[in-house]
Amino acid sequence: QLQLVESGGGVVQPGGSLRLSCAASGFTLDYYVIGWFRQVPGKERAGVSCLRGLDGLTYYADSVKGRFTISRDNAKSTVYLEMNNLKPEDTGVYYCVVRVTQNVEAMCLSSNEDLAMSMWGKGTQVTVSS
What distance in Å separates the CA atoms of residue 1 and residue 90, rounded to the nearest whole number? Predict the structure, then answer.
């Protein structure tokens, strides 16, 4: 069965850290770009960070550069998002998504409509609050 399962969300104080995981089953990461998207109420999902499974090439949204790190373990078919120095504006539901593409930047800048036919996980909630 092809699926993505996110985990690692939670409640953390500003300045804290979390590590999200996206475990893929039924396929390997080598031929895909994998993205982390964040959704807040009333808004579309927006790309946070994306990674090319073949060689690990990455892209980050400006708002998370220097604080978030995306990585992968191809043997485990898992992509991670290490989030440090978290801010209240990082709050949202984080989803991972895969697409058959090699363009990491285009993937992260894709609209929800562009990604409507891609495979999404069910999401994990991240709440940054004091």
Answer: 31
DSSP letter for 92, please. Answer: E
Distance CA 105, CA 102 (A): 9
Quick one: which of 8, 32, 34 has its CA closest to 19? 8
Cβ count near 55 (within 10 Å): 9
Non-local (6+) Cβ contacts of 111 within 8 A are 44
pLDDT by 10-residue block (mean), the chain, 130 residues:
94 98 89 95 96 95 98 93 98 96 94 90 97
Strands 3-7 vs 18-25: parallel, antiparallel or unpaired:
antiparallel
